[in-house]
Amino acid sequence: MNMMKHIVLFIVVLYISNPSFSYANDICVAKTNINTPSGYECKPQETLSVEDFVFSGFVPGETINPFNVKLTVVSADKLRGLNGLGLSAARVDISINGTVAMHVHPDESEFLMMVQGKVTAGFVTSEKAYVKDIKVGDVFVFPKGQLHFVVNSGSETAIAFVAYSSSTPTFQFLDDLLFGKNNLNTSIIAQTTLLDVEQIKKLKAQFGGSG
C-alpha cells in the first residue's frame, strides 16, 4: 500500500471518528490564532473560503535533537477550520534511533498510523505497560491522559500520521516538565526521583532549565 492510500485511509478515520464534521451549522472557523478562555472567536460565515479548510505543510521535515524527531501538528491555530470539530492531526518523522519522548495529552486520546518503517510504541498505566512493535499498516491507540512514547526500532526513518480527539491538543513532555525552563529545584527533583544530582544538572543544561 503506497503512502497516498495511507493518507486517504487516515482522512476517512478522521471523518468517521467525528460525525459532526459534515454539519455546516457546526462550522466555527477561528477568526485569529488567539485562543481565549472562552475559545476562538468565529469568523463571519460570509467571509469563509476554501483556504480556511486546507493545510499544505504535511511534508517531510528535518528531525531535531536531542530526540531526532520532527512533529508537525495541525491544530486549530494553524488550520482554523478545525476549530470546534473535536479533532486535529500530526505528522511524525523519527530518524534512526530517534524517539517521541515520554509525554501525556491530558485531554485527548491519540490514534497513530504507521506509513513507513517500524517503531516500538506503548503507554503506561498505574498497573501495566502496554508495548508493541508496529509496522506499516498498523495502528496504535493511546488513551487520554496516559504516559506514552514512540521509539524508532527499525533501520530507516519512521513516518506516522496521528489524529487527536481535540482541535487544540495539549502536550506535556516529561523531560521538559522535570528539566525545562520551569526551573524546578534540582534538590527537589533528586529527592523525588532518586536521580543523581550531577545527571539532573546535565539534563537541565540539555533542556534549558536551571536552579
TrEMBL record:
Cross-referenced Pfam families: Cupin_1
Any one GO CC term of the record: apoplast
InterPro entries attached to this UniProt entry: Cupin_1 (IPR006045), Germin (IPR001929), RmlC-like_jellyroll (IPR014710), RmlC_Cupin_sf (IPR011051)
Classification via PANTHER family: GERMIN-LIKE PROTEIN SUBFAMILY 3 MEMBER 3 (PTHR31238)
Gene3D superfamilies assigned: Jelly Rolls (2.60.120.10)
Superkingdom per UniProt: Eukaryota
Domain Cupin type-1, residue spans: 56-201
UniProt-recorded name of the protein: Germin-like protein
Disulfide bridge positions per record: 28-42
Keywords in alphabetical order: Apoplast, Disulfide bond, Glycoprotein, Manganese, Metal-binding, Secreted, Signal
